[in-house]
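Recap quiz, item 2
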Amino acid sequence: MAKIKYIEFNGTEHEAEITNGLSVMEGAVQNNIPGIDADCGGGMSCATCHVYINDDKWFSKLPEKEMGEDDMLDQAFEPKSNSRLSCQLIVSDDLDGLTVHMPEKQV
Amino acid sequence: MIKTDVVIVGAGPTGLFCAHQLGIIGLKCEIVDNLDKIGGQCIELYPDKPIYDIPAIPKCTGKELTNNLIKQIKPFNFDFHLNDRVQELKNENDRWIVKTLNGKEFETPNIIIAGGVGSFEPRKFPTKSAEKFDGTSVLYSIKDKTIFKDKSVVIFGGGDSALDWAIELSNSSKVTLVHRRDEFKGAAASVNKIKKLSENKKINLITRYSIKDVKGNGSLEGVEIKNETGESKVVKADYVLGFFGLIMQLGPIAEWGLNLDKKTIPVNTENFETNKKGIFAIGDICTYPGKLKLILSGFHEGALAARGCFKYARPDEKYRFEFTTASSTIKDRLGVKE
């Protein structure tokens, strides 16, 4: 279990307890948190669950990007070097306290 | 005006199998899809990824699944209208008049929306200023490459489309390629070629930059790019090209007066009809309690929606349930001889 904070582009904050094993994307979708579309359903085939990890310490603590994530991020809306696809961030106790920021839009 | 029993919006696996079910029960259909090829997400997003949960097929790729579905509906000779998009619906005397972007018109009692997550559209630049040049000097696809001759062209992107066009246009244009990172998604051979062209000053390669603003009054003059440390610079440009892949947009479907739940369409589970008589929704785009976004669910939904269409297409006939193993009528429709 991990408490994850999702911050919309307009500053609205949402906090949710996410069960281990779910992705940060699934955590948002299941809790009706707006700002993450996840059009492909978690297959790393679109770029609509894009988030920013603004805290450098958290960014380096996250599991490294798998092959293909950066390629997919090339297609995201305003990708930056601290961008991640939230479908690739699997929740564990280690992620307790993580904050993700959403881009202005996904598509 | 093409008269038909059903217009299917979307040529993904769900739309294709639904066409099969329509053919089996003796209805005609026309299939419209925005992509230039048949197969929907299966062909656009994961043609080579294996799928493991198609009943009785332990493993197949998106491409194989699509090819088999095409083969399965071949006997019915249905027409596909690719590279086109259903734009406008109008109801006239219990008939739907369907207009497409390319100006085709259909008259039909039934429309089945099998649109997945929407139609694929190129992802555009996030900058507002790019909009006023959209389609003239800011482009997301190339129809006529001769317009770039001796011009300054700034290309954004790191995939094959961006690299291939940068290489191709470098013969006759002044090309700048801008990408947000040092690595490229495109084929290794193309990346090497780009690097060589850059060394020989045939193209201007700029990495770790992205678009900030488009400059010009009336005609495009340049494009301002920025990096993450906040530095920016302006590159002269007659044309700006963006190749960021495709995104899925619900598009005109949102304007048809259908009930919507986020980006999905609520339906009943008896025949997958929406709140509008004669408009059905199946596959990823429909929603109901317990909905699973699986291809196999789309097949089931298509089979029931096809029967739902029957009563509007053949109001004077009674639908008779038949098995393909036993029915000589169905075998005739399939053109099989035993």
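Chain B touches chain A through 24 residues (CB under 8 Å).
The radius of gyration of chain B is 24 Å.
End of item.
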